Amino acid sequence: AQTLEEVNKCKRAGIMINTFMLASDYSLVNFVQKITQMCRGKAYFTTPYTLGQYLLMDYMSRKTKQIH
């Protein structure tokens, strides 16, 4: 809850939060998606095994794409 309050402060201040995530825990993925959506930022999802590829979720352009 405290982190989401800080995210709201960043949003009000016009600060965009972009996240690069290496974990695959679904609860963490959902948390990062929520933060990214709140601040209209970008989230990059990958694993230590597939660093050359990642999934980009861009809430500014409302696009999701896989980058190779």
Topology:
Blueprint: H1 2-12, E1 19-21, H2 26-39, E2 42-45, E3 54-58, E4 63-67
Parallel strand pairs: 1-2
Antiparallel strand pairs: 2-3, 3-4
Key features of this structure:
single chain; 68 residues; alpha+beta; 37% helix
Describe it:
- It is a single chain.
- With 68 residues, the protein is of the alpha+beta class.
- It has one domain (2-67).
- The protein has two helices and four strands.
- The chain has helices spanning 2-12, 26-39; strands spanning 19-21, 42-45, 54-58, 63-67.
- The protein has a four-stranded mixed beta sheet, with helices on one face.
- It is globular.
Q: What is the tally of helical segments?
A: 2
Give the strand order, joined by hyphens, for the main sheet. Answer: 1-2-3-4
As for the number of domains, it is 1
What is the general shape?
globular
Report the order of strands and helices.
HEHEEE
Calculate the terminal CA-CA distance, rounded to whole Å.
35 Å
Helix proportion? 25-40%
Instruction: Assign the structural class, choosing from mainly alpha, mainly beta, alpha/beta, alpha+beta, or little secondary structure.
Output: alpha+beta
Largest sheet: 4 strands, mixed
Radius of gyration computed on alpha carbons: 12 Å
How many beta strands in the DSSP annotation?
Answer: 4
Strand content: 25-35%
Low-confidence stretches: none
Average pLDDT figure: 84
